[in-house]
Design brief:
The chain contains 12 helices and 32 strands. By secondary structure, the chain is an alpha+beta fold. Among the domains are: 149 residues, no CATH class; 155 residues, no CATH class. It has a 32-stranded mixed beta sheet that branches. A hairpin with a 4-residue loop joins β29 and β30. The longest helix has 32 residues. It is elongated, with a radius of gyration of 40 Å.
C-alpha cells in the first residue's frame, strides 16, 4: 500500500502556508509535553525516598542469608536520560567466626535505572557497576565455609512471606560490570591463603540462553592473565530458585580450560556437578606466565567430573593424557581440621617418562644448560616440606608399563603412600625390571627435625635396565644384579640430608657383556680415569664383564670406598679406593688396574694408577705417584729380564688382588700384608 499527496491543489481548499503552520504547532506542542514530563519526572525522582528501596533490599538479604547488608554513603541520584543510583562502601557481613568483619566489600555500586519503571515502583537496572569488590571465602577450624548462608526463616525479618517474591518481581538487571576485583580463599585450619585479581568482568543478558548471563572478562594470577568467556546463570539461579548453569572457557598463553555443568544451590556451593577439561599445549609458556621455572613437561590434557558431597569434593572419573601416556582414576578431597584429607586411586596402562619430561632415548633432557663449574651440587635451600603438614593423604598407584627416559621398561609398578600429620610412608613400593623384582619402602618425616629413611632390595635385575633407571647409558647384555640399599638422613635441606647420610649400599653384578666402549660415567674426568687404567677401553668393540661390586658404608655423609668398589673383566681388573664427602662435596678417589690377559711384550702385567680429586662439580684427574712408580718399575724389570719378570706378577698383587670382587664383598676392609699399602692415605 502506498500514500500519495497532491500538492497542486490542497485538500479542502487549505493553503500550503496554513499546513506548515499546523505542523509547527504540533511539533511545538509535543516538545512542550516532553519537557513537562521530564520536569515532572525530575521532581518526582527528587521526592522519591531511595533509602526505602535499600532498606527493602537489606531486609530481604537478611531474611534470605542471615547476614547484614550495609551502605556507607548513599544512595545518591545522578540525573540523566538514564538516571543512576550510586552507593559507596557497601558490605555484606561475614560469618560470626570469620577472620574479618565483612565477607564482601565493594567500594562503589552504581545502578543505572530506567526512569519510567522507577516511577511505577519497579527497579529495572540497565547497568550495574561494581567497582573494587573484595570477596573473601574462608573456612573455620571445622571446615565450614562462610559462603554457607542462612536459609529463609532462620533470621528475624520484618518482611512478610510474600514480600520477597514481590521484591524479586520488581527487580531486573540487564548488564553487570565489575572492575578491579579481588577474590581470596583462606583455609581457617591450615592457615594458607590464595587469591586472584579480576581486572575487569562483564555480564549481560544472554542472547544465546534465555534467563542467563553472557560472561566476558579476565583473571590475573601473578604475571599470568587468564581470559574468561561463556554463560552463567541469571539472578534467579543465583538466589536459588533454579540450578545455576555454567559454560565457561578460560584461556591463557599455552593452555585452555573449559567448565560445563550446573550447581544446584550456588549460594551454598551445594549440588555441584561439573565437567572440567584442561589442555596445555605449551607447558613452558604456562610456567613462564606463572613466574615459575619451566617444567620439562610434554603437552597434556586433563579431563574430570567434579562433584561435591557435604564437606568433600570428588574428581571422578579423572583422566590425564600426554602423547601415548594415560592415567585414570579418582581423587577425593574432604575439608577438615587440623588437616584436610586427600585420597587418590590412579591407574595407568602405559606411562612414558621420557615422553612426559621431554627426555630422549638417551635419557637426557632437551635442556642445553651447561653444567655449573665450581658450584654446589646439593642445594642448601630449605626443602618445601610444609606442604606435607597441610594435608593427610592416602594414595595408591598402579602402572602396567613404565617407560624410563633411557628406554628401559619397568612393569607391574605398584606403590601405596600414606601421609599423616607430616609423616609420609610409601610402603610397599615394588616393580619388575629387567627380569628381576625390586621392592622397598620410603619414610619421610617433616616434623621438627625432618628426615628420611629409604630401603630398597632387588634380585636378578639386568644391568642395562638398572643403569637406565639411574639415568646412565650403556649397551649391556646379561649382568644379573642384586642390590641392597639402606640409607637415612636428616635436616631441612638437600645439603643437610646428604651431609648426615648414613647406611650402606651393596650392589653385586654378575657376568655380562658391554658392547662398544665401556660404561659412560657421565663426566669427562671419570671417563679419562677409566681410559688411563684400562688400555683396552678404546680399542675393544666389546667388554666381557665377569663381575662388579659396590659394597660401601656411608657414615655422616662420607662414603668410604676402601677397595669396596671393584670390576673384573676378561682382560683387566679395576678397584677403587678413597672417599667421597657428600657434606663438603669433595672427592678423593684412586683407580688401580691390573691386566689379566697379555697385550704384548711389556703389557702382559700392565698396571695403571690414577687419582681423581677436587669438588664434585669440577674434579681434577692426576697421576698417582705411588702407582706410577710401581708400574714403571714393573716395565723396567720386564725389559731387563727380557720379559721373564712379566710372569712373576708379584708387584701387581700389590695393586689389585687376584679376585677383587671377592675382596670387595668382605665385610671388613681387605688387608694387605705387603710393605706398601695398596692405597696410601694422604
Amino acid at each position: 500500500m502506498s500514500f500519495q499527496v497532491e500538492t497542486t491543489k490542497p485538500p479542502g481548499g487549505a493553503s500550503p502556508l496554513r499546513g506548515r503552520r499546523l505542523l509547527a504547532w504540533l511539533l511545538a506542542g509535543a516538545a512542550a509535553a516532553v519537557a513537562v514530563l521530564v520536569v515532572a519526572a525530575v521532581v518526582a525522582l527528587r521526592s522519591v525516598d531511595l533509602s526505602r528501596f535499600t532498606g527493602t533490599i537489606a531486609a530481604a538479604v537478611k531474611s534470605q542469608t542471615g547476614r547484614e547488608l550495609t551502605v556507607g554513603r548513599g544512595p545518591h541520584l545522578r540525573i540523566s536520560l538514564l538516571p543512576s543510583i550510586v552507593l559507596e562502601d557497601v558490605a555484606l557481613s561475614n560469618a560470626p567466626w570469620g577472620s574479618r568483619k565483612e565477607m564482601v566489600r565493594v567500594k562503589r555500586v552504581e545502578l543505572r535505572v530506567k526512569l519510567l519503571a522507577l516511577l511505577h515502583g519497579e527497579i529495572l537496572v540497565d547497568r550495574l557497576v561494581l567497582a573494587g569488590p573484595d570477596v573473601l571465602l574462608e573456612t573455620d577450624e571445622k571446615g565450614e565455609g562462610n559462603w554457607v548462608l542462612g536459609q529463609p526463616g532462620q533470621a528475624a525479618s520484618s518482611e512478610t512471606p510474600g514480600t520477597e517474591g514481590s521484591l524479586l518481581s520488581r527487580v531486573g538487571i540487564r548488564e553487570v560490570r565489575v572492575t578491579d576485583a579481588l577474590l581470596a580463599y583462606r583455609d581457617g585450619c591450615a592457615g594458607w591463603r590464595v587469591g586472584v585479581h579480576v581486572p575487569h568482568l562483564a555480564l549481560a543478558a544472554s542472547r544465546r540462553s534465555k534467563g542467563n548471563l553472557d560472561v566476558e572478562g579476565a583473571l590475573s594470577l601473578d604475571r599470568a592473565v587468564v581470559s574468561v568467556s561463556g554463560v552463567i546463570g541469571g539472578v534467579d539461579s543465583m538466589l536459588g530458585s533454579r540450578p545455576f548453569p555454567l559454560a565457561l572457557s578460560l584461556s591463557m598463553k599455552g593452555a585452555v580450560a573449559k567448565l560445563e555443568g550446573a550447581i544446584e544451590r550456588v549460594r551454598d556451593l551445594a549440588g555441584v556437578d561439573l565437567k572440567i577439561t584442561l589442555e596445555v599445549t605449551d607447558p613452558k609458556a604456562v610456567a613462564a606466565s606463572l613466574g615459575t621455572a619451566p617444567p620439562g613437561l610434554a603437552p597434556f590434557q586433563v579431563e574430570c567430573r567434579v562433584r561435591d558431597s557435604g564437606k568433600g569434593w570428588a574428581l571422578d572419573p579423572l583422566r590425564f593424557t600426554a602423547g601415548r601416556s594415560s592415567i585414570s582414576g579418582s581423587v577425593g578431597y574432604v575439608m577438615g581440621c587440623p588437616r584436610s584429607k586427600i585420597s587418590a586411586e590412579l591407574r595407568a596402562a602405559l606411562l612414558d617418562l621420557g615422553e612426559l619430561t621431554g627426555a630422549g632415548k638417551d635419557g637426557r633432557t632437551t635442556s642445553n644448560a651447561p653444567a655449573t663449574k665450581g658450584g654446589k651440587l646439593f642445594s642448601a635451600e630449605p626443602l618445601p616440606l610444609d606442604v606435607l603438614r597441610a594435608f593427610d593423604v592416602t594414595a595408591a598407584v598402579q602402572v602396567e608399563t613404565l617407560v624410563l627416559p633411557g628406554g628401559a621398561e619397568a612393569r607391574s609398578v605398584a606403590a601405596r603412600a600414606v601421609l599423616t600429620n607430616g609423616r609420609l610412608v610409601v610402603d610397599p613400593l615394588s616393580l619388575t625390571l629387567g627380569g628381576g623384582r625390586i621392592s622397598g619402602s620410603l619414610r619421610l618425616d617433616a616434623g621438627r627435625r625432618p628426615g628420611f629413611t629409604a630401603n630398597l632390595t632387588g634380585s636378578d635385575v639386568e644391568l642395562r635396565a638398572l643403569l637406565a633407571l639411574l639415568g646412565a647409558r650403556a649397551d649391556v647384555s646379561g649382568g644379573p644384579t642384586d642390590l641392597t640399599i639402606a640409607l637415612a638422613g636428616s635436616g631441612g635441606s638437600l645439603h643437610e640430608w646428604v651431609a648426615s647420610l648414613g647406611g650402606k649400599v651393596r650392589i653385586v653384578v654378575g657376568p655380562g657383556r658391554i658392547e662398544g666402549a665401556a660404561l659412560m660415567l657421565g663426566g669427562d674426568v671419570l671417563t679419562g680415569a677409566l681410559d688411563a687404567v684400562n688400555p683396552f677401553r678404546k680399542s675393544d668393540t666389546s667388554t666381557e664383564l665377569r663381575c662388579a661390586v659396590i659394597n660401601v658404608p656411608v657414615e655422616r655423609g662420607v662414603v668410604r670406598l676402601d677397595r669396596r668398589v671393584a670390576v673384573e673383566t676378561s682382560k683387566i681388573n679395576i678397584v677403587l679406593a678413597g672417599m667421597a664427602d657428600l657434606g663438603t662435596e669433595m672427592l678423593d678417589v684412586g683407580f688401580r688396574s691390573k691386566a689379566t690377559q697379555g697385550l704384548g711384550m711389556g703389557l702382559a702385567n700392565f698396571a695403571g694408577a690414577v687419582r681423581v680429586q677436587g669438588p664434585f662439580t669440577s674434579p681434577a684427574l692426576g697421576v698417582d705417584a705411588e702407582g706410577t712408580a710401581m708400574a714403571a718399575s714393573t716395565l723396567q724389570s720386564a725389559v731387563k729380564s727380557r720379559g721373564r719378570s712379566l710372569f712373576q706378577g708379584r708387584i701387581q698383587e700389590m695393586f689389585v688382588a687376584e679376585s677383587p670382587c671377592k675382596d670387595a664383598l668382605g665385610e671388613a676392609p681387605p688387608s694387605r700384608p705387603w710393605p706398601l699399602s695398596l692405597f696410601r692415605k694422604r
